[in-house]
Amino acid sequence: MDKTVGFIGLGVMGYPMARNLAEKLPGLADGAAGQQPGEAEGELLVYDLDRARAGALTANSGGLKIKAAKDIAELGRLSDIVFLSLPTSLAVKEVILGGPNPGLLDYLKPGSIAADTSTTDMETTKTIALELEKKQIDFIDSPVSGGEKAAQEGSLSFMAGGKKEAFETLKPYCQTMAASVVYMGGAGSGQAAKAVNQMIVGAAFAVIAESFSLGVASGLDPKLLYEAIRGGWAGSKVLDTAAQDMFSRSFKPGGTVDIHWKDLGCALSLAKDRDTPVPVTALVHEIFKAARAKGEGKKSQPAVVRLWEDLLDMEVK
């Protein structure tokens, strides 16, 4: 636990994850071994393209040792472990391998670890792993599930793929942000597990929207319907989240329709590569696409119910 840690991407998920990492990891308070004077000195190094996010995290650190790196080069040069929480596969690829500008590949030391907590497509994941391996840098695909609330509480579920030895080094750091950290296998295994997760969650959000719309169209009070079924087999975290959003009409992200549509696309790409039929996921992907076309993309996933509400001229509330 004596390594210097960096965190790139301080959005809805990354901001609370980075704070939990700084708060719960004792090594950050003790300084990192092998540093030269004037280097990171045991601080969590953070970076985001939106400098205001990094500034807010350091300004509201409550005495935690968090330092905003001036750029990816500084963060990569000083860090032994770097976590990433980014919105797209392209962003992950460009930050690690480089795009318009050099990436972490050009700055990380041999023996360091890059850990991607984003939901990233399999092709990108395997390309990154291979390129980093050439420079003796380990890559762990470690996507998370649980949403904004779990990120804030430090109760996320990590599903990790990559070299087992690198995972064991990384695991204690993941545990500062998680209730569960599970090693799935070689490179890409974490992203495969996340694809399965998103398939199940997306289908649940879609069928909850569909079924509650049918209930209201049949004259049922949706709140009473929720109370009636939540204790049975239909009960789940997804049902609880969807009901809260539908009844409050807030549809405040957390996760968004846009992001889940993207994640389902990753699952479809994986299914195509594995020649595995996934007709339900294909339909759910189209439902999320329709919600995006309707302008619901920036809202939380339960906003897909707005498709049925418009068709039936009613609201589930």
For the largest beta-sheet, the strand count, sense and barrel status come to: 6 strands, parallel
The helix tally amounts to 14
CATH level-4 homologous superfamily of the largest domain:
NAD(P)-binding Rossmann-like Domain
Low-pLDDT segments, ≥5 res: 29-41
CATH topology value of the largest domain = Rossmann fold
How far apart the termini lie comes to 49 Å
CA-based gyration radius: 21 Å
Number of domains: 2
Task: Enumerate the strands of the largest sheet in spatial order, edge to edge or round the barrel.
Answer: 3-2-1-4-5-6
Let me know the average pLDDT. 93
Number of strands: 9
| Series of secondary-structure elements, N-terminal to C-terminal | EHHEHEHEHEHEEHEHEHHHHHH
Percentage of β-strand residues: 5-15%
At the first level of CATH, what is the class of the largest domain?
Alpha Beta
